[in-house]
What does this fold into?
Amino acid sequence: MLKLFLTSSLLIVPTFAAAQEAATAEEVLQKTREAAVYLAKEGADGIATFKSKNPLSVWKADGYIFVIDCEHGKMLANANLAIAGAPLARIHDNLGLYLAKPYCENGQRPKWGLV
It folds into this structure.
């Protein structure tokens, strides 16, 4: 089962023009829903869409969708090509905190959660 998660440039920094405005919480939820609908329709073939910077995967200065597989511990798709396809165990911040852990924990909840 695919789980969708969204992050902002605070966690993983994509390259964007600094003058762009930040994504709102409403936009984050809307874009995540759009990605879920798209992947439900396209299935595994749709993952490739989120491996590049395009209107479905990236918007404004700090919003983008990435797809992770918590069960197999892998980043399936990310507009930040440096970590696309990487094992989740290798993706951490400068403090050594694993970035995928809270996303995977929320994905196991009966109801969704935000990180």
